Predict the structure.
Amino acid sequence: MSIRDWPSAERPREKLRQRGAGALSDAELLAIFIGSGRRGVDAVGLGRDLLARHGDLRALLESAASPSGLGAVAWCRLCAALELGKRYLEAELRAQHVLGSPHDSARYLKARLAGHPYEVFACLFLDNRHRVIAFEELFRGTIDGASVHPREVVRRCLAHNAAAVIAAHNHPSGVAEPSAADRHLTARLRDSLALVDVRLLDHFVIGHGEPTSLAQRGWL
């Protein structure tokens, strides 16, 4: 049976209009982007199949290529929606008069970095009132590391006239436990930035769960 044959209140688009996006399941949200199913399977059913095949929504959206069974147009819509979500978080962060809490920056940094299949090192550059000036991905590496050069971080701070920095990098393994190398890098960054009167506020390690703050561990 086609979604068009469903009761009006149960169709994903109508349900969204009447009850809000939060009332929809992951499969129903996917169905809105998919648009139509395939022979014998409606869009919601296809969404359920994709979720079952990948394990969850995060794994599906982090796929490097269009999953089997999903057309190129639908996949582009999903990728665009994911990027919109990331940019919304960035706009929300920029709109704050002052960076509210470590949770705010951790949530944004996880949204930007968690999906990469390789290691990425990035920075949030802040002014002297801890308002966000810019976010930049500075270094990319492989699945098990990235070469980070403190001199380049200092150069970008000077270019942005930043007074403070929050650094972050992801662990593609999903394990957000800082390594000895991460702690050593943090100390080098802190000391290098101090030479130009820029404060390193935190360094987050991003994995599948909550990001790990090296500042909260007392390693800054």
